[in-house]
Amino acid sequence: MSAHRDWHHADVKAALEKKGLDLSAIARANGIDVSSVSLAIRTIRRRQMSRVKALVAAAIGVPPSAIWPSIFDGQNRPRWKRRPHKRTTPNGRRNVCGSVHRDGP
User: Fold this and answer.
1) At 42, which helix (H) or strand (E)?
2) The CATH number of the domain where 27 resides is what?
3) Domain that holds residue 53
4) Residue 77, Cβ density class (10 Å: 0-12 exposed, 13-18 middle, ≥19 buried)
5) Interatomic CA distance for residues 50 and 71, integer angstroms
6) In the chain, pLDDT over 90 holds for what percent of residues?
């Protein structure tokens, strides 16, 4: 566990307001839904939210590791390693096009 604590979501919103921004402004500027930005600042350990958290930190003007030290390391990279995505079906066949391979007619 890191020695520093993550910012509270109200502190993140207050920092955005000091810059004259709100969650919807970040969402519009980056082409994402405002609920994604809201969820990103409220959740602690969501892997898929690291990109949105980095956008929020950039809007505030601080590195992501300053706001969420439990999620980002000193180089502002997420603390977890990406797992390769398996594109196979349960029976071991490669599923390239997204359709399900079925045995038989």
Assistant:
1) helix 34-42
2) 1.10.260
3) 9-67
4) middle
5) 8
6) 33
